[in-house]
Prior knowledge:
CATH topology: TIM Barrel
Low-confidence stretches: 1-26
InterPro entries: Cyclic-di-GMP_PDE-like, EAL_dom, EAL_sf
Pfam family, one: EAL
GO molecular function, one term: cyclic-guanylate-specific phosphodiesterase activity
Shape: globular
Protein name: EAL domain-containing protein (Putative c-di-GMP-specific phosphodiesterase class I)
Distance between the termini: 50 Å
Strand content: 15-25%
Amino acid sequence: MERSESVESENSMMVPESGASPGAGTGLAIAFQPIAEIAGGRIHAYEAQALRDGAPATGDFDQLSAEQRRDVDRRCAVAAVRWAATAGFASSGGRLAIPLSAPAIGDPAEHIQPALLTARQYGIVAERLVFTLHHYQAITSSELADIMHVFNKLGPVVAFHGVGPNESGLAYCGKFAPHAVTIEPELVSTIASSWSRRIAIEDLIRRMQSLGLRIVAAGVDSEPVYERIRSFGVPLVQGAHVGAPATGCLPQPALRNAA
């Protein structure tokens, strides 16, 4: 399939008509995965994820140009709000985390207005939306400052996805104080079986905590990983052990032994 055909298909499916099933006839759908508070096991947010035939579609999106990615991100955001509202988000008690590619954001206000307007139609206040920036390390400090200022002025809050090896992105996180920062799942998922990874993650978490950052540990896929993360004082967790992504509903966290 040519790239133009792929983009056209992705764009057309990302804003479903009212009553349409997610991704009907396209292989694409919006799923929701819970992010839970360890204290009490309560829902903190639902992260919207684009799936193609049940697998994450982010790899496909990363191949798009900035202009193409901008359009897909905006359509995904609208679809996420609409499908979350249909699944009962208004009474869920959580926030809705919507991923965006930071380098693809042109005019920040224009970029999120369609999602904000859709949220308003469903009675969802902007403050319950969290726009999670991916690849935020790839833009300049001034561009990131503009995004943070505009988004927060309009109501939603901003989270950063991914503090990776060698503390990539940590300086930006400390400077801009996002709503939350996600530690990448690739770093988290092996800490129960890797001594060196456990030491590295523990040190990274201490540095993040010293900056006053709210941490989300993604990749919490087993009880041993969850227990280790909990012992580090991380407040928010996400992964298969917490709850798998689901389409058509907002799954409740399934944490055990929540402190």
